[in-house]
Amino acid sequence: MALMDTLSKQNRPKILVADDDMMIRVLARECLEEAGMEVIEASDGESALALYHREHPDLLFLDVEMPGMSGLDVCQAVRATPEGSNVPILIVTGADDQESIDRGFNAGATQYKTKPINWSLLSRDIRYMLRAAKAFDEIKAQEGRLRYLAYFDHLTDLPNRRSFNEQLRRNLIAGEQRGKSTGLMLIDMDHFKRINDSIGHERGDEFLKSISQRLLEILEAIAVIATDYPGASVSPDPALLAFEIARIGGDEFTIIVRNPQSEAQLTDIGNAIIEGFAQPLEIQGHILVLTPSMGIAVASRQGMTPEILLKQADAAVYAAKTDGRARFRFYDSSLEDDATEQLRIEEDLREAMLSGGLSMVYQPQIDTRTGLLCGVEALIRWNHPELGALSPAKFIPIAERTGLIVELGDWILRQVSQDSKLLANKLPENITISINLSPLQFSQSNFVEHIGDTLKELDLLHYQVELELTEGVLMLEVESNLTKLKQLKTMGFQLAIDDFGTGYSSLSYLRHFPIDTLKIDRSFVNDIGSSGGDGIVLAILGLCHALHLRVIAEGVETREQAAFLLTHGCDVFQGFLLARPMAIEHLFEAANKDYMSLILPPSESVTHSAASTAQSTDKASS
Ligand code: C2E
Ligand code: CA
Ligand code: CA
Hints:
- The chain is α/β, with parallel strands linked by helices.
- Strands 14-15-17-18-19-20-21-22 form an eight-stranded mixed barrel, surrounded by four helices.
- Helix 23 (559-567) links the parallel strand 21 (550-554) and strand 22 (572-574).
- It is elongated, with a radius of gyration of 38 Å.
- The structure holds ligand C2E and calcium ion (2 copies).
- One calcium ion (CA) binds at residues 498-499, 519, 554.
- One calcium ion (CA) binds next to loops.
C-alpha cells in the first residue's frame, strides 16, 4: 500500500502556488489536491523562485502583485533558465485591463487569469495546460527525431550523406580561413555487392553495422572523432587532429581528416584501417574478412569545392580497386584520364544499347564423345565508333559498377532471343544456348519472371537455355537464391557455374544447388602440363564425376590440353582450338562440322571418324 502511495505520488503533477494572500493559497491547495495534484506553496516572489529551482514543479501558479519580486519577475526569471522555457505558467492578477494582460504574456505566461478565481474551473484549466505542455514536449522530441532522420543513417547511426556534404563544406571553409588543409578518405568495401547478393540484404545490413563499428574502433584508437553536426551542442577543439565520419551510401564511408599535417599522416591512417580490417568480422555464424579500398584526396589550395574533392577521392578509390583492392591510393591528376574514360565508356554504352554498335557472337561447344556441336555460348561484342572493338572484359565491369548491367543484361537477353529466330530448324534440337548472367542482374527481384518472358522465342524453338552464373552468386547458401534457382529449373533452364575455381571455392553449394554444369576456368586449362596445373584440373574433374555434373573445359587452345582433358573424362570443350566466337549465321557451318579430328591426337583421328558416326547412329536408334 505504501509503495502504491509513493508510486501514485510520483505520477501526481506538482503545482507551485505563489500568492501573498493566504486565503487564495488554501483554496488553491484544496481544489488542486482534490483533483489529484500535489501542491507546494510560496508567499512571495523570492521564495517562489527558490522553490522552483529546488522542486522542479510541473506548473507555476503566480500571483502578479506580491511584495518584493512580482509574479511577472518570477515568470521572466524562470523563462530565462534552460529548463524553464517550456514549463507552463499561469499568471493570476486582480487587473484585467489589456495592458496588464499583455505584460503577463510578454513576461512569458502560458495562461492569464483574473481574480476573483472561479475555483470550480481551476483544476480543469490546469489539467489542460499540463496536457498542452506535454504535447509540446512530445513535438520537441519529434523534432529531435526528425533531425536524426535527416542527418543520420538509421542502420549504422553514423552521419549520413547529407551530414557529410555539410561536414565537408564546413571543413573546407574553415580550412581555407585558417590556411589549413582538409583530407578526405573515401572507403568502399571490396566485393560487398556479392555479399548482399549471396547472403541477403538483412545479413548484409548486419555486416554494414559491424563494418562501421570496426571503423569507429580503428579511428578512436588514433584520434578524436568530431561530433559536431548541425544542431549538436559540443564542438571539439578545432586545432585538434580530428575525424568526421559518415556513411554516404551502401558500402561507402567517408572520413574527413581535419588539418592533416602531412601525407605521411594520412598514409598512417590508411594503413591503420587496412590492418584493422584484417581481423575477420562475424555475423550470425558467417565469418568473413572484408577488405576496404580507399581513395584519399587532399584540399590544400584555395577554392576547392566539395564536389571536386569527392570526385578526386572517388577516382582514387577506383584506382585502388583496379590495383587489386584492399589498399588505398592518393589522388593525382593522372587518375583524371582514367575516370574520364570510365565515364565516357558508360555514356557511350548507354548510347550503343539504343542505336546499335553492340552485337552477340556465339562460341561453339563441342561434345567430346561425338565431336559434334552440342552448344554455344553467347558473348557480347561492342564496336565502339572511335575506340574500335572493345573487349567485354573491359566494359562489363564498368557496366557492373554503374548498375547499367541490368539494362545491358536485358538487351543481351532480347538480342539472343531475336538472333535465335535465324536458327529456327537449322541447328540440332538438343543444342544448348548459354547466356552469361551478372550477379546484379540475377539479384533483381523480378528476375525470374522477367527472363521467362524475354526468352519465349527460344522456348518456342525448343532450344535448351543454360544460364551461366559465377561462384560469387552462390557463395553461401541463401534461401532466396536457392528459391530463384529452383524456379529457374522448374521453368526449364539449365544452370552452369562459370569460371569455376576462381571464386570462393566453397564446395557445399555444389551439393545443395540444382546445378547441371561446371565450367573449368580458362586459367586452369592453360596450366595443364605445368607442375601443379594437372592436379587442379584432375581434382575438378573428379568432383564433377562424383556429383554427376557435366564439365565444360573453357579456353582449350592446344591438342595437349585436349588430350589430357579427354583422357580424364571431360564432357565438353570450348576454345580456340575448336572454334572462336562467331556471328550467328556461321553457326550453321559449325553445326555440320565434325570436330573429332581436332580433339584427338593426330594418329587416332583417322580411325575415329568411323567410330564417331557409329556413335551418333547409336544415339539416333536408341
Ligand atoms: P567468360 O564468360 O569466361 O567467357 C569466355 C571468354 O573466353 C570469352 O571472352 C571467350 O571469347 C574467351 N575464350 C574462349 N575460348 C578461348 C581460348 O581458347 N583462349 C582464350 N584466350 N580465350 C578464349 P570474351 O568474349 O572476351 O568475354 C570475356 C568475359 O566477358 C566473359 O568471360 C564474361 O565474363 C564477360 N561477358 C562476355 N559476354 C557477356 C555477356 O553477354 N553477359 C555478361 N554478363 N558477361 C559477358
Ligand atoms: Ca561464360
Ligand atoms: Ca568462363
